[in-house]
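Exercise 3.2. Students should predict the tertiary structure of the chain below and write it as structure tokens, then compare their answer with the key that follows.

Predict this chain's 3D structure.
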Amino acid sequence: MDIKSAYKQLARKYHPDVSPPGRVEEYTKRFIQVQEAYETLSDPSRKIMYDRDMARGIHLAFNARKRYNCSDNQVSEQKGEWKSRWQSQLSGLKRRSESKDGAENMSWAARMRQQREEL
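Answer key:
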């Protein structure tokens, strides 16, 4: 399967707007992972760097925007940065979804979920 088509399929599957009501956090996390994986695998230089790091045994969430070095301190700091960035993105998504008032400001997927729940 082509990287781009696999990315599109997984992005549609795990997009937070189409997640089941109780699994928004899980879907958001997976959506971010899918997006970062696509950024890494679609860029040849980033893919080479990812393959090299995986061969060295670095099994952390790979961030395509930053290079991981081998030192344990740097790896822990980068893992902490990744976690804090993900948490801030998640809180931003929650804030935006809570600020939507009424069906006219809801996404199509949210309106479909609401209609499905009303039935």
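Discussion points: The helical segments are 3-14, 24-42, 44-56, 72-99, 108-118. The chain has a mean pLDDT of 77.
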